[in-house]
Every structure is written in structure tokens, then in C-alpha cells.
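Weekend entry, working from home. Most of the wet-lab plans are on hold until the incubator is repaired, so I used the time to fold the two sequences that have been sitting in the queue since the last round of cloning. Logging both here for the record. First:
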Amino acid sequence: MTTYDAGEFTLEKVRDYVWEIPQEGEMRVPARILASEALLDEISDDKTLEQLRNTTHLPGIRKYAICMPDGHQGYGFPVGGVAGIDTEDGCISPGAVGYDINCGVRMMKTNLTYDDLQGREEELVDKLFANIPSGLGGGGIYEGDNEDVEAVLNRGMDWALEHGYAVEDDLAHCEDEGYRPEADASKISQKAKDRGKNQIGSLGSGNHFLEVQRVTDVYREDVAADFGLAEEQVVVLIHCGSRGLGHQVCTDYLRDIEQTHQGLLDQLPDKELAAAPAGSQLAEDYYEAMCAAINFAWVNRQLIMHRTRRVFEQVFDRSWEEMEMDLLYDVAHNIAKKEVHDVAVDEDDTDERELFVHRKGATRAFPAGRPEVPEAYRDVGQPIIIPGSMGSGSYVLRGGEHSLAETFGSTAHGAGRLMSRTQAKQEFWGEDVQDALREQDHIYVKAQSGATVAEEAPGVYKDVDEVVRVSDALGIGDRVARTFPVCNIKG
């Protein structure tokens, strides 16, 4: 097959798993979709391809707009989308980052095995649910005043370290060491700060979760050893973001940009792509506000990890240090970062430019040697954590050698939704899903409501195995290990 018929779009096959919407009309670059034909059937079932094509109209976009294998329709910019946009003659788009700024995932290792956990699943899931704040609205592990929130926004994980919620090793194993120096809390509205001050250390709702897992498969033993992973080992996955604060930051700047840069908005096919021109005051303000929200999200996940360590101490009657509950890695997947990339289309040329790399529902996937990779992993490549559904398992990958050339150093961020939340609640009954997971797969799920479980039922998501297979085949993110759920708590 050299083309794929996606209704309005005819995709041209560049090579295995790489498809292209050719540049035409007002498109500034082609659009590329990284997927198998099975995944294309799902990606082409909503407005993902239309949104990806619209993205190519953004000023300063380089090489091509990219959709990852888990892509699906989002707000203006598809979830699973990546765009590298020039910091000099381009723009920055809040919609291409998303409302949950630095929604991301971290994995914590332990020296416990699945045998150590069996028989204690219900006690563990109950204690985690009782101790980790979740659900809509307020309530966090740390509830501070305005000064505390500003310190978190400006300092990131340094604040958590100073207040006893982190150790030095946690910072060393976090993307950017958990700190964006460009952050400026003064660029964030009081309304956003008010929404965040009682949510520091909380999961929230939707697809956010904390999951205790066991490692079931190791694919690259040398890399797994460097990551500290082995079969039957117990690990903990935490997935959440910047809560109401990040949502308000996006809302505030979208409104301001729409009002201030109407001329640019008029050039775009979708107002949801509203962008501030590079070098403008709003572009600078949004970038600094976004970096502050990124810091907030890292602290949020850190406090949840801190509390999780305490729960494990209670359940297993030993210190978290004895259980070696160390951070493997924390990686963001709703973010725009200034990075230098080669944007030459011809492989024989070189044209290095500083870009705003927008990753919305996409994970940074830098290979070995890139200086941004933590020192512990620089010789093997950056860890990538790709959660699946609560019934299918998750994956640990490492940055692939082709990621920089193919995707601005990016890969997928999860399984990707197949079904809207409304449809999911019509198709599934939460209590039935919980019962089936416990009885058939020995997975213990606890949530604020049955509706939350229905919205996140395994059948709501794409096949994460296929998403990861494509990433591995393309060499943008290499499979290292697979994990499977044991306990899961949700908002």
C-alpha cells in the first residue's frame, strides 16, 4: 500500500509506519503521521488529521507537523501532536501545549517483588486512596498561602527539597531536575494561584491515577539494568499535572492572545490554535507563566510520591530507603520547550535552529549523548514512561537513535483514547469494570465514583502494545520493559 484513504485526506506512504499529508495551499510544511495501518484506522476516525493539517499553518513551523501513534482529537492541536516552531520568526500556542500544563508521569522503583505484595493488595489500595488526595476541586497534601504558591511556581523541586518532601536524588532523576529557570510567578493570575494553593499534592480527576505495578517483561536487559528494573519488581506510576492552576493559565493566555493578536488569528484555520508571535510581550509572558506551571506540576507529583513512600512504610513496616523507593524518572507530556534542533529537510544539510518544541500528549525521547539527559542515563538514553490503561499495562522505553531526526526527539505518551468520556459511560458500568479487573486480572481499583472507572475502562483506549511496537520499529523510543497493574487509585 502506497497511499491510505482517510476520507478527506489521502495519506502518502513515506516508508513503513510513516505517512504524509503533502504540503499544499496555505500549509507551510507537510504533516506526518507515525502509525501502523491498524492505528491509522483509529486516528482517521475523528478530527485528528484535520487538526494536524491546521497545525501546519502556524508561522515558523519547521520540517513538518507530526502525529504520534497514539494521536487523537484535542483542542485545536491534536493530542499526540508535535511541532517545532522557530523562536525568532515563529510563535507559541497555548492550545498546542494544552490546558493541563506539564501533565506528566513518573515512575518510582522499589526492591519489593510481586510476592511481597500478594495478599496485601486491598490494604495497600485502601491506604493509598485514603492518603493521596484525588478527585475534582480542592484538597492537597500541602495547603499553603499565596507566598507558598509563588515559591513553588518559581523554584520547582528545589522548594520540595527545602521543605523535606524530596531528596537530592529525586531532583537528579527528574526532567530538567524539576526546575524551569525561566519561570516567573508574577506572570500568573491571582485566580490561577488561588485555584492551585490547596491542590499541591493531588491527583485530580479524569485520566490521572496512581498505580502500583509489577514488571512482567524485560526486552533490553542491559538498558533495564541501567534503569534498575527487573522482572517481578514492584514499581509505582504517578500520572497527573498542574491541576486547576495550569488550566487557568491556559485559559487566561488564550483569551489575551485572541484579543491582542487578532491579525495572526485571522490567518489560521482554527481559532483554537491562537498563538502569540515570537518576541511579542504575550509570547514571553506565556512562556514564563507556562514554565512556572511546569514547576508546579513537578512539585505536585513529588508530594504525591512523598506521601506514597509513607504509605508503603506503614503497609510494609520498613523505611522507604530500605525498600529503595527511588525515582526512575519523571517526564512531561504537555509542554513547549526551547530546544536546538537540526531543521534541514535534506539529510546532507545541517540547519540548527532554536525552536519552541510543542509536545501535546507527546513525550520527550532524547537518545544517548544529548546533554539534557540526566547524567545517570546519558550513556543509554532518556527513560520514557508510557502508561496504558488500568487493564493493559504500561511500558518503559528509552530515547531512540532516530528520534531527533524524525520527531524533534519525541514519541508517544500513552495508549491514546478511542472513545469520549460520554460514550464510555454509556458503554461501561464502573462497578462491573472494577469487579472484572479484580476477578480476572487480580487488579484492585479504587476511585471516587463508578463513573470515573467507566470513563477509564480498558476498552476506552487504543492498543498500547501496538503504539509501543510502532515507536520501537521507528527507532524513536526503544522498548525496555513492560509493567502490569496491581493496584490503581483514581479521582
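Second, folded right after the first finished:
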Amino acid sequence: MGRGPKAAVEKNVGAGEGSSHPQNVGLSVHFPSEFMESFTQGMQSFRSSWSESVQGMDQRLDGYESRLSNHTMDIQELGNDMHRFFNRAAQSEDQGPREGAPDQE
């Protein structure tokens, strides 16, 4: 069988004691200090690495936002250019043929 409280319950039940509650199972767990130091260092390293990753993502997102803003301005300017072009074309049609321009059939 495995270890831990579940194994103790299974062991007690399997022994025919009729109780599904573990007996003499401690609630506190003690880890060796070397393990805790190593675990703490590992968590600090992970946290630092995670923080750097998040900062890198933030920087990339800022770059994407800047490029998107530039593209938006380019699209707006293109729209303005098209608007001016079509306004001039409409005005030219309203004025009719220009003097000195070849006749168009």
C-alpha cells in the first residue's frame, strides 16, 4: 500500500477494526531544514524567472500596441487621402469638361 493518511485508513479498515478513521496519524509534517532551504531557494528562483517573463511579455505587448497605433494612423491617413481624391473627382464631374481638354466621347 501507499503512504500517508489514506493508506492508514485502508490499513485500519483492512485489518478488520471496523473503523474508517485513521488512528495515530499526526497532523503536523516536519521537513528537514535542508529540504526547506532548497525548496525556498527554488521558489525564489521560479518567482524571479516568472517576474522576468512577465516583464518581457509586457514589453512585447507595448511594442505591439505601438505598432498597432502606427498602423491605425496610417489607415486613417489613407482614408483621408481617399476621401480627398473622391471629393476632387466628384467636383471635376460637376464642373464638366475643362477648357482646352480634349473632347471625350
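Plan for Monday: verify the second prediction. The chain has two helices and no strands.
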